[in-house]
């Protein structure tokens, strides 16, 4: 650590905690907090910034990709699948093998709510 820089940028109450954090030389540094689109510094969700930066790094190795943020309330299907996978510890892709019984009904309900034809039409 560059102790002078840490003391320059980190609140004095947190300096020792930062200095005790082990450095990793096997991974590239990433910005945990970033500026928002309007240039303001946003600390509302630093964990989200870290997750997105890690995701971008992984996707970069895969080639072309596109990320679109959709609020969970607008995509209940994805939210419910994610919740059931984590809640029920479903480590294999049960969606690819037909999915749970409630999935098709939810897909059709969401399609109808968005003016789309159902998945069974």
UniProtKB/TrEMBL annotation:
Protein name: (rape) hypothetical protein
């Amino acid at each position: 650590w560059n102790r002078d820089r840490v003391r320059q940028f980190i609140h004095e109450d947190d300096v020792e905690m930062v200095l005790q954090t082990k450095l990793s030389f096997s991974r590239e540094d990433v910005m945990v907090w970033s500026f928002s689109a309007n240039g303001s510094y946003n600390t509302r969700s630093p964990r989200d910034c870290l997750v997105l930066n890690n995701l971008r790094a992984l996707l970069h190795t895969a080639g072309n990709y596109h990320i679109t943020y959709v609020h969970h309330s607008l995509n209940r299907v994805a939210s419910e699948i994610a919740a059931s996978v984590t809640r029920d510890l479903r480590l294999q892709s049960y969606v690819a093998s037909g999915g749970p019984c409630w999935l098709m009904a939810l897909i059709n309900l969401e399609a109808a709510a968005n003016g789309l034809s159902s998945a069974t039409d």
